[in-house]
Amino acid sequence: MIIREVKPAGLYIHVPFCSSVCPYCDFAVTIAGADRRSAYLDALDREVAGSADHGLRFDTVYFGGGTPSSLAPDQLARILATINARLDLAPDATRHIEINPDDVSRAAAAAWRELDFTFASLGVQSFSDEVLGFLGRRHGAADARRAAGTLLEAGFTTVSVDLIFGLPGQTADDWRRQLETVLELGVHHLSCYQLTIHDGTVFGRRHALGELRELDEDGQADLYLMTHEILGGAGWEGYEVSNFAAGADHRSRHNRKYWDHTPYLGLGPSAHSFVGRRRWWNQRKSRLWTAAIEEDRSPIEGRETLSDAELFFEAVMLGLRTADGIDRDALQRRFGDEVAAFDEPAVERLAESGHLLVDGARIRPSSKGMAVAEGLVRTVLP
Ligand code: SF4
After folding, report:
1. Structure confidence at residue 4 as a pLDDT band (50, 70, 90)
2. Is the CB of 325 under 6 A from ligand 1?
């Protein structure tokens, strides 16, 4: 049995353009000139216009990619105008944009603020020139610092930086310096991602040739726990496995929706949507997505309907990635006792080993638990 709450939804807009493709990147990105960008904007207008019948009210809008900041402010304004005209957007909706340090200038930051973007995610990846070179990034460490300062001066409510950790040969000292730089800059939020080597990328090919190796699991876990230690010591909270905030006001309101089954609608190539128990996703390749819309065909590439058991598994998996954890009573009310069953001795063992914090019906992961979050769900479910 599913009891659905009607919560405001999140709107995700995928902007697939990048000025070059990074050797580790597995996202749906493309390098394209003015014509393809213009075709994208036309197609997006049409996809937004055709999405009103979902009947959703949105209180977050997230421009991700790709590199949304590579669109000109008037192109971003056009997308926002279409959204405002066609969809039900709450007046206080949070607007979130991913920004590449290369694109940051005072004028650009002021233009993004004019468009009411309040949450800026800056794709720094590293504050080391050497690492940035290895990652194939076009910006340097000084550019990244300058960009963060410019966004702070422009008055974004939350300035977040993205960092990658677990690079081949990365030392604890190096990662400590990265985290100290985050704190020195005075930004409000950090998203940090473990380097994952994907097949089909340049790094994937180098990995297959034996030229590249990810840091071993223990090394990764040590760096991850150091993140909690250093940022926690500065009063920050690790509120989700990959996300840290300098206070609850700086948590990402949009990303929360992905973690607690709040509905979200994704528009643009590769974007995913989730409503109730239905999930669907768009054509991953920008050309196929654009062609489908131009030819009046659906740009949706696939869809699935989740069973109660699948939804419950996801709710536990996603919940145990967040500091708020899960409420077993609420899950039992939502799914019924038969579906929402736990392996009680396993929960007790994980509490004794310090991976889980159990307080009545609520189970939360400790930082040690978050370091092995992938394994928690399989352990606590029968
Ligand atoms: S800038 Fe980001 S989205 Fe674009 S290619 Fe690099 S990692 Fe991928």
Report:
1. very low
2. no
pLDDT digits (tens, 9 = 90+) for 333-368: 999 999 999 999 999 999 999 999 999 999 999 999
Nearest to 352 by CA among 379, 324, 319, 314: 379
Could you say which of 259, 274, 289 is where a domain stops?
259
- Phi-psi map region of 71: left, alpha, beta (phi>0 left; psi -120 to 50 alpha): beta
25 alpha carbon – ligand 1 mean position (Å): 6
Mind listing the pLDDT tens digit for each residue in 269-289? 999 999 999 999 999 999 999
Residues 144 and 141: their CA atoms lie apart, in Å, by 5
Are residues 253 and 342 located together in one domain of the fold? no
The DSSP secondary-structure symbol of 104 reads -
- Which pLDDT does position 1 carry in this prediction? 43
Distance 356 CA to ligand 1 centre (A): 35
Integer CA distances (angstroms), 357 to 93, 337, 364, in order: 33, 22, 5
**Residue 104: inside a domain, yes or no?**
yes
List the beta bridge partners of residue 232.
Answer: none
**Which domain-ending residue is among 225, 259, 293?**
259
Residue closest to 301 by CA, chosen among 263, 261, 269: 269
What CATH number has the domain bearing residue 222? 3.80.30.20
Pick the residue whose CA is nearest to atom 2 on ligand 1.
66
